[in-house]
Amino acid sequence: MSTLVFEQPLPGLAPHTVYNLDPVEGADGVFSLRPTEAPDVRLFVLDASLYAPSYAPDVADHRAQIGLERDEPARTLVVATPGEAGTSVNLAAPVLVNEAEGRAVQAILEDWPLRAPLGV
Questions:
Q1: Measured distance CA(103)–CA(38) in Å, rounded
Q2: What is the pLDDT of residues 27-83, one digit of tens each?
Q3: Is the dihedral of CA 114, 29, 99, 15 positive or negative?
Q4: Number of domains forming the structure of the chain
Q5: pTM of the prediction?
């Protein structure tokens, strides 16, 4: 388990800024993200490098918010939403993680889909 501290609350999840990021057993690159003070709330996030390998948004300006230089890599996670037609991922709001410091921010991007089908 890792603890992530977000620079500001995730949209719709205020006032929570401290989360537990736990790997989902048997599913590489799939994580459960839960506020430490509201463990009944859960988001599933996916490692974008594994599940959306061609996803390469410009997030350089957001890296400083989590203590990284513009050219330092951040782990990029995307929120997954299961549905009847399959799972979609939110490419318009990736979660960027500074793994060394446990800091995170959700970047809000334009021109990326909110619900991109997973695996397409």
A1: 19
A2: 999 999 999 999 999 999 999 999 999 999 999 889 899 999 877 889 999 999 988
A3: positive
A4: 1
A5: 0.92
Averaged pLDDT score across all residues of the chain: 93
Residues with Cβ within 8 Å of 32's Cβ and at least 6 positions away in sequence, in order, are 20, 21, 22, 23, 24, 42, 43, 44
CB 106 within 8 A of CB 91: no
Domain residues for the domain of 65 are 2-117
| CB contact at 8 A, 18 and 46 | no
Report the CATH number that the domain containing residue 97 is assigned in CATH: 2.30.290.10
Q: How many CB atoms lie within 10 A of CB 33?
A: 22
Q: Are strands 103-106 and 2-6 parallel, antiparallel or unpaired?
A: parallel
